[in-house]
Design goal:
Two copies of one chain form a homodimer. By secondary structure, chain A is mainly alpha-helical. The first copy, chain A, has a single domain (8-141), classed as Arc Repressor Mutant, subunit A. Chain A has helices spanning 8-11, 14-32, 37-50, 55-62, 66-78, 100-120, 126-141; strands at 53-54, 82-86, 94-98. At the A-B interface, helix 1, helix 2, helix 3, helix 6 and helix 7 of A face helix 1, helix 2, helix 3, helix 6 and helix 7 of B.
Amino acid sequence: MTDPGAPALLRNLASWQTGRVATLGTRFTAARMPLEARSDFAVLAALEEYGDLSQAELGRRLGLDRNNVNGIVTRLEEHGHLERRTDPVDRRRNIVAVTEAGSRHLHDLNERALAVQDELLAALDPGEREQLRALLSKVLDSHPAQPAS
Amino acid sequence: MTDPGAPALLRNLASWQTGRVATLGTRFTAARMPLEARSDFAVLAALEEYGDLSQAELGRRLGLDRNNVNGIVTRLEEHGHLERRTDPVDRRRNIVAVTEAGSRHLHDLNERALAVQDELLAALDPGEREQLRALLSKVLDSHPAQPAS
DNA sequence: GCACCAATGTTGGTCCGACCAACGTACTCC
DNA sequence: GGAGTACGTTGGTCGGACCAACATTGGTGC
């Protein structure tokens, strides 16, 4: 206990703690994949779980705003991981659909993400990891998932 | 439960969850103080708890790298919240010390930060908040607090 | 005493993610 | 048909985590 880590005032702030943990996460992530791959992962995961979505819907479900969704989708499209086609019933919307390659990419990214998880949560046993997951979920569920706009 | 919130793959990633919670924290913070005030708060809190420190030490304890510490300290100095003086025993170092005004500023920021806390963790009862605090602390303690460099 | 290496503070720059503002297009509702 | 709204897109700001390089200063081996 010679190193108290961080000042008590900060240790009591969940916003500070989560921020630091998230930073550690991005640091570990950087070792295993390009950083931007995290957004790609989120978008691909949402599409695989919910089926095809419009860009705006994607943003709402993931808490990303539409500007950023645009960039991510464009990048994924360029790499052949998904396809954009305009919704026939509402021609404002772009329906976004994962391709075969995108699906493979998603599963590859998932494996790397799980490795990051293990590294990040190395100090917690399975029960504690589940507790943490549940508590964070509870916090997230209590706030709208939407972006700031 | 018509809105599952986020895809399962993401809900299982602590790095994603903490990232989202941290984002909510910054969003709530923005409503109560300038965003940059968070770094100021961290630095002031460290100085108040540990006593005067060099900039490099500050960075190590808080997990900030020295470039950023420089900027924060400069800003706080310009506002009269702390003082820089070169360490007489090692003239490479700047000893950083909080001023009276800085101390008042710290306590003001702390109150706002606690309000953000309450808003962020509204869904958790006191016991759950303590659990969350403890789990995040455990994770943070298991990793060196130092910046990436 | 001198040469080398390490640490500190500083400057200047990159990158990513969360934002905001504005625009043209397309839909809805009345 | 017109007003208001949603969508996608472009172009920008800002904070924070990084990296590279430099001058100054300390420490160490010799």
